[in-house]
Amino acid sequence: NNTKCCLLFLPARMAQWSVILAVIAALGGAALLSSVHKIDEGHTGVYYRGGALLTITSGPGFHLMLPFITSFKSVQTTLQTDEVKNVPCALISLSAVYDIVRNFTADYDKALIFNKVHHELNQFCSVHSLQEVYIGLFDQIDENLKLTLQEDLTSMAPGLIIQAVRVTKPNIPESIRRNYELMESEKTKLLVSVQTQKVVEKEAETERIKAVIEAEKVAQVAEIKFGQKVMEKETEKRISEIEDGAFLAQQRARADAEFYTSQRVAEANKLKLTPEYLQLMKYKAIAANSKIYFGNEIPQMFVDSAREGKYRGPQGHPGVEDRLLHSRGPAHSLAGNFSPLTR
């Protein structure tokens, strides 16, 4: 009987150990599975222990943590889109993840963006008409909303940056929408016509400027040519003045030379033409004549005695004058040489 009891006890003990080992293996597997976790690319892991946020963070990849008492959440650090009027939200600085999650939890975008977008859009719509919201100021909503959100994020959650905001058209009745679309189409046509007019005006202004430039160029060329002609004429005038001056100096020098020559000749003649020399020349002139007139009335011949003077012959009788004008009474002609009388 004792042998049978031992044999029955051994299988019971083995079954208990098997259960214990199975439980341990299950717990170990569960602990291993809960401690190993993966962080995707573009995300940062933050950890909680006992509900308290830990200061450690982890990057992309597989990591280990204490099982059962530590949990994690993956926070996206790249560009993400929150479906609040299709507003794209932005990047989180890696160094700011801990502070943002600590202050606003891992669902920070609900408190900082979702609710804020609703509030800002409602406030904008409350102070503007439907026409302004749908057409007039619609292109300004994106930038205004971005600036407003970024101002709040800069003070409340530094490191969270709004990259861009895109707001879709509001839902309005179909009839109103068609009217607004028609208005927008007309506005577009007006803008196109205005731009076309500006282009035409700019082209006309360009043509005018080109014409002015061409006219100025022609005027400058004409002015340069005129200046060249003036300079040429001035040069010719200067050359002519120089030539005239040279010719005048030459003529003056020649006249001075001739005057000096005449003056010297006159002075020489004055010294040369003595009464004796003049008388000799008179006799030579008379002797050179081939004819001579004489007679009883020769002393009464008319001569220009006042101007030329008389020559008295021997014994006080009048002599032959330099110029014989005429004689009175009968006269005889005698050919031959004439010897002057001696005094």
TrEMBL record:
The regions listed as transmembrane in this protein's record are: 17-34, 46-69
Give the GO molecular function terms.
cholesterol binding; ubiquitin protein ligase binding
What coarse category fits the chief subcellular location reported for this protein?
Answer: endoplasmic reticulum
The topology of this chain with respect to the membrane is: Single-pass type II membrane protein
Q: Does the keyword Transmembrane helix apply?
A: yes
Q: Where is region (Disordered) located?
A: 309-343
Annotated Band domain residues:
34-184
Q: Which GO terms describe its cellular component?
A: endoplasmic reticulum membrane
Q: Which keywords annotate this record?
A: Cholesterol metabolism, Endoplasmic reticulum, Glycoprotein, Lipid metabolism, Membrane, Signal-anchor, Steroid metabolism, Sterol metabolism, Transmembrane, Transmembrane helix
| Location of this chain's protein in the cell | Endoplasmic reticulum membrane
Please give the biological process terms from Gene Ontology that the record holds. cholesterol metabolic process; SREBP signaling pathway
Pfam families to which the protein is assigned, alphabetical:
Band_7 (PF01145)
Q: Which CDD domains match?
A: SPFH_like_u3
What family is reported? Belongs to the band 7/mec-2 family.
Q: Cite the PANTHER family for this sequence.
A: ERLIN (ER LIPID RAFT ASSOCIATED PROTEIN) HOMOLOG, ERLIN-2
What protein name does the entry list?
ER lipid raft associated 2
Recorded source organism is Sander lucioperca
Q: What is the lineage of its organism?
A: Eukaryota, Metazoa, Chordata, Craniata, Vertebrata
